[in-house]
Amino acid sequence: MAQLLINGLAMGSIYGLVALGFVLIVNAVNVVNFAQGEVVMIGTFLAATAVLSLHLPIIVAYLFSLVLMAGFGYIFQRVAYYPLRDKPAITVIVCTIGVSVFLKNVARLIWGPQPLFFSGLFGDQSIKIFSVYVLPQNLLILGVTVALVLFQYWFFNKLPLGRMMQATAQDQEAAALMGIRVNKMIAYTFIYSSMLAAAAGVMVAPIYFVSPEMGGTLGLKAFCASIIGGFGSIPGAILGGLFIGVVETFAAAYISSIYKDAFAFIVLILILMFLPQGVFGEKISEKV
User: What is the pLDDT of residues 111-127, one digit of tens each?
Assistant: First the structure.
């Protein structure tokens, strides 16, 4: 039971980090980035390339992926959002869907259709904690997620740059009147969101094969997590991710592992039926 709980929380942490990327972009520009899952996939492939082809140490490969994905986030914003920023939101959303298909095909062209695998920072052998066998990678995921959530709280509440990004997310016109460079803050949001996606990807890679299709599943479940937690809510994104991770892990163990991926969507349907505003109460009827 404890082992399943840890596995579920670890996988849920990954969903939560990807969902954070969704929420930050939605809050900043009121657009759902349906390419967020593929951004995770690209970041993971970059880390796999660093480990398997460049033979870099894993910790250096993590940093390699994060740095490159920061640049990727800026380019993504300039290509997929900035030229369409004055168009209706649905135009940008359709563009992100197109970018997701493009990225998946680019990944298949560069890295091929066969899944890649690389070991975690602390190896693949389970360790025994009291009477529970746990993968070190799952503990790393939980630790890094807690650290990132604390960092994000400090960044957005204590640093001037974080406050300017928050002000931009709350009201772009008011932020501009206060002298904040709105376009620059939006670019920073895309960069930070891409780095979060890369962090999620490199952590999940040792327990989840790296393939062009991995982004689709992760992205959809993270989107479900953001709705369950309350669309637009940062704590809700993390809570929703953890909830989905735990539910699908226990359901796969006690009901059916074949339909593991379906349980997240069953939970989403139930939430929309009985708690449509999500756990943290954001109104989602207009945004989703």
Answer: 988 888 887 777 777 78
Name residues whose C-beta falls within 8 Å of residue 177's C-beta, 6 or more positions apart in sequence: none
Percent of the chain with pLDDT over 90: 22
Q: How far apart are the first and last CA of the chain?
A: 35
pLDDT band at 214 (very low <50, low <70, confident <90, very high): confident
Q: Which of 185, 214, 209 is nearest to 197 (CA)?
A: 214
Give the number of other CB atoms < 10 A from CB of residue 120.
Answer: 19
pLDDT given for residue 288 in this prediction: 46
Task: Provide the mean pLDDT of the chain.
Answer: 86
Cβ–Cβ under 8 Å, residues 271 and 228? yes
> Cα(278)–Cα(24) distance, rounded to whole angstroms?
17
* Cα 223 to Cα 237: distance, rounded to the nearest angstrom: 9
Token pair of 270 as six digits: 């139930």
Q: What is the mean pLDDT of residues 180-196?
A: 90
